[in-house]
Amino acid sequence: MPDLVRELTSFIEPSRVLHSREDLLAYGYDGTAALGETGAAVVMARTTAEVQGVVRLCAEHKIPLVGRGSGTGLSGGSVPVPGCVILCLAQMDRVLELDEKNLTILVEAGVITAKVTELADAAGLLYPPDPGSMKISTIGGNVAENSGGLRGLKYGITRDYVMGMEVVLADGTVVWLGNKCVKDVAGYSMKDIFVGSEGTLGIITQVLLKLVPRPQAKKTMLATFQRMEAAADTVSAIIAAKIIPCTLEFLDKITIKCVEEYTKIGLPLDAEAILLMEADGHPAAVEDQAAHMVGIARQCGATTVQIARDADEGIRLASARRTAFSALARMSPTTILEDATVPRSELTKMIRFVQEVGQRHRLTIGTFGHMGDGNLHPTFLTDETNTAEMARVEIAMKEIFDYAVSLGGTITGEHGVGLAKKPFLPAAIGEGSLGLMKKLKAALDPHGILNPGKIFD
């Protein structure tokens, strides 16, 4: 599309407007398996003014526009549509302010999540959201998808730390939403509309994030179980004891085997479940909570409980969970990571159902996830070139999502809807909620140019 490229390069240097076949292929995917498409051009924006210019150009010519960060999404949220402009914000990576008096940090959308964590830590603070992709994912992408992480049980998810943002709307208007005030109830909470909107309502260019004081101590424990029910009972008992760990994660038998082959950290291959438990806070409180959790795990039937002696051993034990996806991804050509979520009380039913679905459809499904908040990651180990097997995967996924919804759960806890979950959304949220979302989309993006086809048609 030479005319489009000519217009884009009139205000952005040509080296940052990519349109070769190879470049378009490279930006045709995110982290979601079996989804890909090519656009018309890729623009590497560096300023809000450049983003504004691209949006205005697309609005004028009714050209679809798909925003993008590092492309680590797992629901197809940043997969292009034919003929679109792909607006990549990865080069908008400046840290604009670290305000230790107000415990905030202001960053551009392309800043890597781990960079925020590192800067907060250096100041004696903590940015709690820790998605598995944090070493390469961007803050803008985290906000657009409302990412979660291992610390979600105690600290919440990305939405809970967004205090403000700069957004370029579909007509090119730039707006600032929110502020540094801890309490602000003046009008609608507009910033929250854009958190989790997956680039369908506006392009997020800057984000103001809340930080919290860094915990003084942390204790890591790893418990093994011969029965999945015993691990779930442990989680329920810990919560009932009014203990909120910072981490309460699990691995099933298939995942344990893959992780041990990958990491060689000494996991028992005969265990049906492993529970990673972490407490943080004041040293005395951490010791008390850790001892209580160990006691509960043993009472519920844990066969072994390892307690980290220091921070290095804590990192080693935690790697059993943090390397789960990487370990599973080694086992087959295609890895499809899902995130059905149910109330904690329904965890055992959901895990058993996933196992039964895998057996019935002759599929290998490793399950791990955030047992403390009910967010499971059934992970299909498959091959997208095997048409018959992929058809069984599609059927199995629908059964899993339908069952999660029937238990009072939802189709996604932290990955977003995008393209991959779009067919399951109406049953999950209801026609009334879906209709309201469509009205909001029509009001903010009347020509439908922003990330069209994502979340709903």
Describe the overall structure.
With 457 residues, the protein is an alpha+beta fold. The protein has helices at residues 2-8, 21-26, 48-61, 113-122, 139-145, 152-155, 190-194, 228-240, 253-263, 283-299, 311-322, 324-329, 347-360, 387-406, 425-429, 431-444; strands at 17-18, 41-44, 65-68, 85-88, 95-99, 104-108, 125-126, 162-168, 174-178, 203-210, 212-213, 217-225, 247-252, 273-281, 304-307, 334-337, 364-370, 375-382. A hairpin with a 5-residue loop joins strand 8 and strand 9. Helix 8 crosses helix 10 and helix 13 (347-360) packs antiparallel against helix 14. The two termini are 25 Å apart.
Name some characteristics of this structure:
single chain, 457 residues, Uridine Diphospho-n-acetylenolpyruvylglucosamine Reductase, domain 3, Alpha-Beta Plaits, seven-stranded antiparallel beta sheet, five-stranded antiparallel beta sheet
Can you lay out the helices and strands and say which pair or pack?
Layout: H1 2-8, E1 17-18, H2 21-26, E2 41-44, H3 48-61, E3 65-68, E4 85-88, E5 95-99, E6 104-108, H4 113-122, E7 125-126, H5 139-145, H6 152-155, E8 162-168, E9 174-178, H7 190-194, E10 203-210, E11 212-213, E12 217-225, H8 228-240, E13 247-252, H9 253-263, E14 273-281, H10 283-299, E15 304-307, H11 311-322, H12 324-329, E16 334-337, H13 347-360, E17 364-370, E18 375-382, H14 387-406, H15 425-429, H16 431-444
Parallel strand pairs: 2-4, 3-4
Antiparallel strand pairs: 1-2, 5-6, 6-10, 7-11, 8-9, 8-10, 12-14, 12-15, 13-14, 13-17, 16-18, 17-18
